Amino acid sequence: MAEAHQAVAFQFTVTPEGIDLQLSHQALTEIYLSGVRSWKKRIIRLKNSVITGVYPASPSSWLFVVIAILATMYTRSDPSMGLIAKIQEHLPVSQSMSTQCQAVVSAVLFSTMLWLLLIFTMRLCLKQLLSYHRWMFEQHGKMSTTTKVWVALVRIFSGRKPLLYSYQGSLPNLPVPTVKDTVKRYLESVRPLTDDSQYERMTQLATEFESSLGNRLQWYLKLKALWASNYVSDWWEEYVYLRGRSPLMVNSNYYGMDFLYVTPTPIQAARAGNSIHAFFLYRRKLNREEIKPSRIPGTVIPLCAAQCERIFNTARTPGEETDSVQHWQDSDYIVVYHRGRYFRLRVYQAGRLLSPREIEFQIQRILDDTSPPSKGEAKLGALTAGDRIPWAQARKKHFGSGVNKRSLDCIERAAFFVTLDDDEQGMLGDDPEASLDRYAKSLLHGKCYDRSVDTLLITRFDGSKHCRHLSLQIAVRFQYTLATDCFQLGYNAEGHCKGEVDSSLPRPQKLNWEIAPECEEQISQSLTVAQALADDLDFHVLSFKDFGKGRVKRCRVSPDAFVQMALQLAYYRNRRTFCLTYEASMTRLFREGRTETVRSCTSESSAFVRALEGGEAAEVCRRLFRSASEKHQQLYRLAMTGAGIDRHLFCLYVVSKYLGVESPFLKEVLSEPWRLSTSQTPVQQVELFDMVNHPEYISCGGGFGPVADDGYGVSYYVLGDSMINFHISCKHSCPDTDAHKFGAEIRKALHDLIQLLSPSHREPSKVGESRHEFKKDL
Predict the structure, then answer these.
(1) I want to staple 37 with a disulfide (CB 3.0 to 4.6 A). Which of 152, 351, 479, 523 is the partner?
(2) Which ranges does the record mark as transmembrane (predicted)?
(3) Chain center to CA of 108
(4) Which of 338, 398, 445, 466 is an active site residue?
């Protein structure tokens, strides 16, 4: 109860002599400092809004324009061509002002309008410049004169010292491809997956759709594209993510691994202290927009930063039909789970962020707390890991009021969620590869009840001091935290966080619950569903160290195309057939852009695989490989520039549902399973890590679950020049999939490709090469 008393600013007692008022100086000080911090954040937010709103100009440029206009007036010239005089005539206070004052006010108003017009013109020019994408389709190393001029103009109009969101208003809208082009590309993508009769049937359906219903649906889609900043993003979030009723765990979440070969400290609480502090440092930079806008590597082209807005202070609220995402402007605490109990830990004291040592001290208090969980509390998190409808119903019935609502609100409004685990994970024991597989698997689902899956950012610290994250924009934030933890904050000789401890800090507050027997039964049912899903998951981490990006690039091959061709070869050897393959691409060249699909299984890639497996001559295989890799790069470019297939077809399908019309073509397209779902983890931020002097500070990347019950999920991480890590997932319930066997096929495929792609191998053999690599160094 001590925490509750400290939260009371004053108390009063009614006595016969009057009212006895007792003020708490400490509590009043806390309220005052919290208010100061809140107003500082508002002022910073307002200042950044002004700076971002006038970018690429600056607020100070307004003063320059005003002075310039006033100076020309004093030289008896009129740059406004009579507009200043017109403004002066219509000033509402003209009778109470002198003629000279009226002229100055009119000049200032004209200067402001001219300044705003210049800003609008500059942003419009930049938006048009950023709509140019021909540079991406030019051969590597051969830049046209037009592109050179374009680059120079982009540099001029991009301004200096942009904030995180400075380019948002200048990014172009996502274009709507023509129905004809999308249908054509779709038919090309399914040709290697169908026989002649199936392809003829699909062609007939596509032709009927294109000539009839397609044009009608396209009209509505173009109308939305004119009105909305992105015709895909809101529907994609609602219908693909929020309306899904299956468990989020495994099906939707993603994880990132800690360092593999180094443990910064043997003290669990210390690692948590530094990492939590680093997260809040990153959030502070995010709120102040001090993080530089993301760009395509090696270019001046900015990328959309809209997804950065909902990393922290964000939770997903379940609903019976659809979920919703709640985001709060600020939160000064985190929620910590340990041994079945939930704690609220304030990370701000007297308006300041606690030091890493103080956070460590508070975390250690939680670790040392021996109080038992409340009745039904220990596995309460299983509700968020099960099916969404039962959780929505339980939330409405058992968490809509009283102490349960207050505690649940506390969890959902936290900056992020932290789990302290007692189980050691990582590369341990006599079989480090098997322990790494178990580690990866546990990252995705844990114990099925030791986290709030609805929280968009989860950090977990286990007995081996590894931290894990499930988040949008996971890689950049995770890598920032790791780098800050090890290279900026550091630890003392004993392994503790640096700094001093204020022992008067209030203890973390344990959340209270009143769980009814009916709710406990639902917790048990949700846990059964989640546990079955977790037990069915087969996971394997392949840490491939025989060669990496450096050797691949010396063969004049795009690393991403190389890996994708290896995956096609491995899948064919594993299943003796080809499948619809999903590779995630990004559309962040456009405002509110998210992802697009690259259909990596093409007629060219299947022809190459068949030739290689059929024993064709090496020169033939090289030529086919070159054709397949160039086709893959072309598809990637089209996806990045808004000319992909799947998001357009998805939106056409949504429009058809709104109109209440059926399309056999769209229905069949959207029912096709992705048996091979792949994604590349963003490249580690090299400016944060010294890979030369500290090569041991490397992460293994991250992974996700399979999309199809009879398919594979493959996440790969091209790390430096000498390592490629693969995270492979599938389901035990499918007799045709095996993560370890598929990993072995991937390893063999990588060796087969590099062996005869290498410049030193030109004797007859079964492989191919690429003419040049894609500009985006993947």
Answers:
(1) 351
(2) 50-74, 103-126
(3) 44
(4) 466
Residue with tokens 């790494």: 436
Angle between helices 179-190 and 196-211 (to 10 degrees): 170
Is 387 exposed, middle or buried (CB count within 10 Å of its CB: 0-12, 13-18, 19+)?
Answer: middle
Radius of gyration of the chain (CA): 30
23 SS3 class: strand
The SS3 of residue 94 is: helix
Full DSSP string of 389-441:
HHHHHHHHHHSSSHHHHHHHHHHHTSS-EEEE--S--SS-SS-HHHHHHHHHH
Distances (CA, A) of 675 to 301, 579, 581, 710, 730: 34, 6, 7, 6, 10
Neighbours of 117 (CB within 10 A): 10
DSSP 477-503: HHHHHHHIIIIII-B-TTSPBSS---T
CA 191-192-197 angle, to 5 degrees, is 55
d(CA 596, CA 521): 41
CA distances from 776 to 40, 59, 154 (A): 40, 35, 18
- Burial label, 625 (beta-carbon count in 10 A; 0-12, 13-18, 19+): buried
Question: What token pair was written down for 535?
Answer: 């037990």
Helix orientation angle between 474-483 and 268-287, rounded to the nearest 10 degrees? 120
Within 13 Å, how many C-alpha atoms sit on residue 27's CB side? 13
Separation between Cα atoms, residue 288 and residue 376, nearest integer Å? 41
Q: Whole-angstrom Cα distance, residue 476 to residue 260?
A: 18
Q: What is the pLDDT of residues 724-744, one digit of tens each?
A: 999 999 999 999 999 999 999
Interatomic CA distance for residues 686 and 717, integer angstroms: 14
The Cα–Cα gap between 591 and 168 comes to: 6
Nearest one of 278, 282, 353 to 505, comparing CA atoms = 353
Q: How far apart are CA 707 and CA 584, in angstroms?
A: 13
Quote the CA–CA distance of 54 and 119 in Å, as a whole number. 6
Residues 453 and 337: their CA atoms lie apart, in Å, by 12
Element (H, E) at 336: strand 333-338
| pLDDT reported for residue 93 | 67
pLDDT digits (tens, 9 = 90+) for 517-558: 999 999 999 999 999 999 999 999 999 989 988 899 988 899
Q: 429: phi > 0 → left, psi -120 to 50 → alpha, else beta; which?
A: left
- Tell me the residue type at 217: L
Q: How far apart are CA 89 and CA 98, in angstroms?
A: 13
466 belongs to the catalytic site: yes
130: nearest Cα among 111, 158, 102, 92: 158
Q: Write out pLDDT tens, residues 250-308.
A: 998 888 888 777 888 888 999 999 999 999 999 999 999 998 888 888 788 999 998 88
**Of 557, 638, 595, which Cα lies nearest the Cα of 136?**
638
Report the alpha-carbon distance of residue 91 to residue 660 in Å, rounded.
Answer: 56
> Distance between CA atoms of 222 and 621, rounded to whole angstroms?
43
pTM of the shown model: 0.87
Secondary structure element (H or E) that encloses residue 116, with its range = helix 99-130
Virtual torsion, Cα 608, 611, 613, 618, nearest 10 deg: -100
Write the burial class of residue 729 (CB in 10 Å: 0-12 exposed, 13-18 middle, 19+ buried).
buried
